[in-house]
Design brief:
Blueprint lengths: L8 H25 L3 E7 L4 H17 L4 E7 L4 H6 L7 E6 L4 E4 L5 H7 L13
Parallel strand pairs: 1-2
Antiparallel strand pairs: 1-3, 3-4
């Protein structure tokens, strides 16, 4: 009969695996509750329409996703290849890269409620705040 202190290599490996699995699951729960958004906004130069789109998206993100988002603004006149790669056909266009699924919003981005709904920011732990 074996003593409790004398564990086989297989038993030790199983304990390590289950311990690392539980740590991974705890980390996964923590990160899913604080999802990070990656957004890309395609605009055309410094037109009034482009400036309004940038201001609207920045304000929405600061209100609903403070510290939980990355916003890249791409001027399609300055970076036409990036727009071509993303298959942008109109501007302004907002592309939500993360969290999945990828979504595109084309045109007037000033309606906060529609954009927030489209980005899935109306439910869950993120609350919609009116300006």
């Amino acid at each position: 009969m074996r003593k409790k202190a004398d564990k086989t290599k297989k038993e030790i490996r199983h304990e390590r695996t289950s311990d690392s699995s539980s740590r991974f699951e705890r980390l996964l729960i923590r990160t899913s509750s604080s999802e990070h958004y990656s957004l890309r906004l395609f605009i055309t130069g410094t037109s009034a329409r482009s400036n309004c789109a940038v201001a609207a998206i920045r304000a929405l993100c600061e209100d609903l996703l403070p510290g939980k988002y990355d916003l890249e603004v791409v001027d399609i006149y300055q970076q036409p290849l990036k727009a071509m790669d993303a298959q942008i056909i109109a501007a302004p266009t907002l592309v939500k890269l993360l969290p999945k699924p990828l979504k595109r919003f084309i045109g007037n981005l000033s309606n906060r409620e529609k954009v927030a709904f489209g980005l899935d920011l109306t439910g869950g732990d993120v609350k919609y705040a009116r300006a």
